[in-house]
Structure to design on (844 residues):
């Protein structure tokens, strides 16, 4: 048994060693630069620091890496230009579509190198396709296989026909990686260990939930005849959005950016105006991601198109965007104006309007005193505010909404059981996901759908199947019109993608949202930034 | 004494069994389909019902509860908490990666909070209903009422944004530790200060204190050597049992300061429905609580000579 004196000594010793442990702790060791080509001009600081809300998962593991490195470390065969509704060359120089899209043969650009110095060849594309087919559901449902015809030509075989195959190649997950990214090397069933890509950054260090460190990929900068303005690009993971903003204000990071996937972990919209007025540079891009009201249209009362119309006409979108300090645009069309077919549909009168008197009349003529349930996912805090405003707007026209803010799991349970009348949801994504999410939201038989009727489902199939741009646009216009006529969903506001940089950061809108060759990107890119020394 | 310890350890078996059952049941108590959450996080897409079903089969979620529980328990007993559903890494590895940060934050907060809580509690008790007591009462009230996340953000605003003295976030040296510890200590010590005060006031009202004072002992000796020592048992019990805060107490602080500790791991795992991690953390927290309880019981004999076990 310890004496009291011994006990006190023991406790004192324990506490002292604990405190000593705290004091002696070193900051994470950052490896010294290795790439001789990545010397930043002396007028810029060697390090660029970005605050970001999500882990980059650089180790990959079984299921691959995060969205940020997919954009910055890897590249894709094609990119998608939303404005032109065109798939444009990226790693692939050109392609040939056979058997209505069951086979697409891509010819690769020559001289493109991975960050480890090895050349991009058809074998790497074949490997990526096979790895995805073995490890990723999107790959499994898309690819039949691939063949390297020669060093720079690869044929990819798809399970289904249609334009959607080509559109999918611009998707995040279809990024091309070096066969050395997996272990064992070149194994289609291998475990993803470290991303090696052809993109602007080379991943050099990573600590889960703390930081990811990149260096400029010298081969990428050489390809585009650019010089990087930093030696290291350090991304600090800061989960809390307010802390992220304060980290920028305190000078601990040079920039903060939205989660490139869109829809979450973004800079609070009501801070953007304040930051801008304080001299920070706010880069903002409208993306084809639209927040909507989704109906439980398969049961009463919203199986009645008239009631859906009443909800549609009761919503004052201009008021909704005030929640976001007017930083986002009210959605008076299904997608932003530059999205394919939107202008044409608008010209044909597909415009969502605010007509509370008409809405009131519809409700008085058959739905007076009706009470409906609206469910909201608690994890989307902005949506709670939006839902509260919608509740008030619907009350103004005589529709009583019982609002239930639910934990994510409970929300999904209610959604799957169909125990709701209204819910907030989104359609679209960043540009590259425009068609992908059209499939998830409007294609018949999808679990994550927003609205499908015989007419809209058929049109969605036609859109995703059609290679001819003009015909596809025509189908899209018809599709928007069908959704509008049937009041399938109620668009509320368009989401944005933002990056905010400190005053001494060299950055501009063009480079933030375009590749050096002019390809537009929906996600912010950081290859061009630098901090003045 | 040895018999007492052995008896107490034996008594922990049903408790631990109950804790394990409860930890495991979380999987079935949480709303939503974990397979859907896991599929979405793993693959970064909106998974089809087929993919969800495949993930469900892979995770063994179709197996009956008892079979899963026995399988899980048989591994846990051998120290194997399984593989994280979303990270694909051993759960114990994930926990050990986060443990140093949590321990650092907790023990620094614990040490500072105790020192201040005892000091302020004693002052409040000695100067009951005087200005200093009122000050401590307001201080405690604020500590209890102010949410940690708000206080954390205010401290970041003052010390990082305005004064540029301390880092706003992250895990690193001592400078990174100051703001999270300050934030957490404020609420951590608030209730404890009140607790020390009330225990000491109760002791000070007892007759042996009157006798000690009548004997002409100095106030300092009466309070510290007599009354405070007697008040120590409830205080130590209360303080020690806050060990479970090591895992769950710092959640808000960890989120605000991007501190990579066990609290944020627990929250993330709950949101991701990564049940092997949640189960392990809840189980470890429960086991720690049980063993600290035993240790505290044994401590009583050290603090108070009147207490003897097994005699």
């Amino acid at each position: 048994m310890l004496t009291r004196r011994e006990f006190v000594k023991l406790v004192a010793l324990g506490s002292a060693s604990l405190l000593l442990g705290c004091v002696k702790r070193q900051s994470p060791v950052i490896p010294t630069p290795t790439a001789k080509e990545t010397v930043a001009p002396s007028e810029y600081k060697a390090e660029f620091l970005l605050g970001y809300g999500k882990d980059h998962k650089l180790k990959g593991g079984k299921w691959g890496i995060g969205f940020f490195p997919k954009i910055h470390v890897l590249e894709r065969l094609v990119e998608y230009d939303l404005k032109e509704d065109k798939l444009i060359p990226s790693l692939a120089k050109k392609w040939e579509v056979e058997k209505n899209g069951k086979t697409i043969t891509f010819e690769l650009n020559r001289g493109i190198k991975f960050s480890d110095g090895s050349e991009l060849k058809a074998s790497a594309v074949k490997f990526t396709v096979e790895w995805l087919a073995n490890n990723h559901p999107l790959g499994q449902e898309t690819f039949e296989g691939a063949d390297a015809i020669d060093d720079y030509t690869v044929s990819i075989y798809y399970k289904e026909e249609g334009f959607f195959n080509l559109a999918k190649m611009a998707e995040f997950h279809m990024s091309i990686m070096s066969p050395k990214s997996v272990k064992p090397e070149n194994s289609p069933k291998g475990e993803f260990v470290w991303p090696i890509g052809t993109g602007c950054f080379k991943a050099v260090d990573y600590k889960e939930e703390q930081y990811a460190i990149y260096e400029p990929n010298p081969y990428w900068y050489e390809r585009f005849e650019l010089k990087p303005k930093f030696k290291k690009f350090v991304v600090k993971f800061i989960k809390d959005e307010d802390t992220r903003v304060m980290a920028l204000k305190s000078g601990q990071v040079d920039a903060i950016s939205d989660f490139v996937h869109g829809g979450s972990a973004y800079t609070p919209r009501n801070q953007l105006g304040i930051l801008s007025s304080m001299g920070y540079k706010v880069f903002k891009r409208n993306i084809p991601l639209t927040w909507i009201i989704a109906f439980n249209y398969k049961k009463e009362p919203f199986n009645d198109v008239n009631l859906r119309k009443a909800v549609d006409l009761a919503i004052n979108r201009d008021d909704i965007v005030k929640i976001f300090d007017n930083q986002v645009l009210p959605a008076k069309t299904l997608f932003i104006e530059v999205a394919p077919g939107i202008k044409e549909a608008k010209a044909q009168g597909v415009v969502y309007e605010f007509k509370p008197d008409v809405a009131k009349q519809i409700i008085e003529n058959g739905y007076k005193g009706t009470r409906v349930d609206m469910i909201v996912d608690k994890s989307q805090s902005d949506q709670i505010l939006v839902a509260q405003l919608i509740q008030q707007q619907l009350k103004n026209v005589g529709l009583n909404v019982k609002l239930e803010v639910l934990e994510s799991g409970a929300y999904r349970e209610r959604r799957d059981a169909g125990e709701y009348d209204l819910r907030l949801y989104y359609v679209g994504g960043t540009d590259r996901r425009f068609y992908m999410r059209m499939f998830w939201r409007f294609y018949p038989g999808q679990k994550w759908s927003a609205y499908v009727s015989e007419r809209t489902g058929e049109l969605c199939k036609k859109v995703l199947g059609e290679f001819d741009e003009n015909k596809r646009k025509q189908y899209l216009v018809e599709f928007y019109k069908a959704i509008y006529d049937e009041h399938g969903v109620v668009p509320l506001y368009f989401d944005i993608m933002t990056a905010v940089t400190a005053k001494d950061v060299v950055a501009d809108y063009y480079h933030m949202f375009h590749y050096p060759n002019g390809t537009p990107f929906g996600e912010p890119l950081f290859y061009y930034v630098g901090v003045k020394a | 004494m040895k018999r007492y310890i052995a008896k107490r350890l034996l008594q922990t078996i049903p408790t631990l069994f109950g804790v394990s059952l409860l930890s495991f049941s979380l999987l079935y108590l949480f709303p939503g389909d974990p397979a859907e959450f896991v599929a979405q996080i793993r693959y970064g897409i909106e998974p089809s019902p087929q993919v969800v079903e495949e993930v469900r089969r892979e995770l063994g979620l179709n197996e009956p509860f008892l079979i899963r529980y026995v399988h899980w328990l048989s591994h846990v007993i051998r120290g194997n908490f399984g593989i994280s559903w979303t990270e694909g890494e051993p759960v114990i590895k994930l926990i050990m990666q986060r443990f140093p940060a949590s321990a650092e934050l907790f023990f620094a907060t614990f040490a500072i909070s105790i020192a201040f809580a005892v000091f302020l509690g004693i002052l409040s008790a000695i100067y009951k209903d005087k200005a200093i007591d009122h000050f401590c009462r307001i201080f405690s009230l604020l500590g209890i009422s102010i949410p940690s996340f708000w206080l954390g953000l205010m401290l970041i605003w003052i010390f990082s944004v305005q004064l540029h003295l301390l880092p706003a976030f992250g895990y690193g040296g001592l400078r990174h530790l100051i703001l999270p510890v300050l934030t957490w200590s404020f609420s951590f010590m608030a209730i404890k200060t009140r607790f020390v005060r009330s225990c000491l006031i109760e002791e000070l009202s007892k007759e042996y204190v009157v006798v000690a004072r009548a004997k002409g002992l100095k106030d300092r000796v009466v309070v510290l050597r007599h009354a405070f020592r007697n008040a120590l048992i409830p205080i130590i019990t209360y303080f020690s049992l806050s060990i479970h805060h090591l895992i769950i107490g710092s959640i808000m602080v960890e989120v605000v300061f991007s501190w990579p500790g066990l609290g944020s791991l627990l929250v993330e795992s709950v949101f991701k429905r990564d049940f092997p991690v949640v189960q392990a953390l809840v189980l470890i927290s429960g086991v720690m609580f049980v063993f600290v309880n035993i240790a505290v019981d044994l401590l009583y004999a050290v603090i108070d000579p009147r207490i003897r076990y097994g005699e």
